Amino acid sequence: MGERMEKQGDLVQGTLDMLVLKALARGAKHGYAVAEWIHESSNDVLQVEEGALYPALHRLELRGLLSAEWGSSENNRRAKFYALTAAGRKELAQEAEYWRRMSGAIARVMQTA
Description:
By secondary structure, the protein is α+β, with helices and mostly antiparallel strands. The protein contains four helices and three strands, in the order αβααββα.
């Protein structure tokens, strides 16, 4: 039971959508740039696999939290760029507050003798 089953960089269940929304909070990005931003912002700890990222982007777009349009990436490749909608900004604020409360509560439990 004490053995850690996940590999380093696995995301806590339920956090991917919040991290994607956060990655897009400062402006539109294509999928690869979202994954890179999460990886770099976490000091190379978190890694988002394509098999999880693109379904999450699609799911968030279907929920109206993201808008998407085709454009050219930095290396002139055709890429779909995602941006937060007003609903996405509201969802991010709610998710961030929930995460702050939950992570604080977990930290308090872990600090008890």
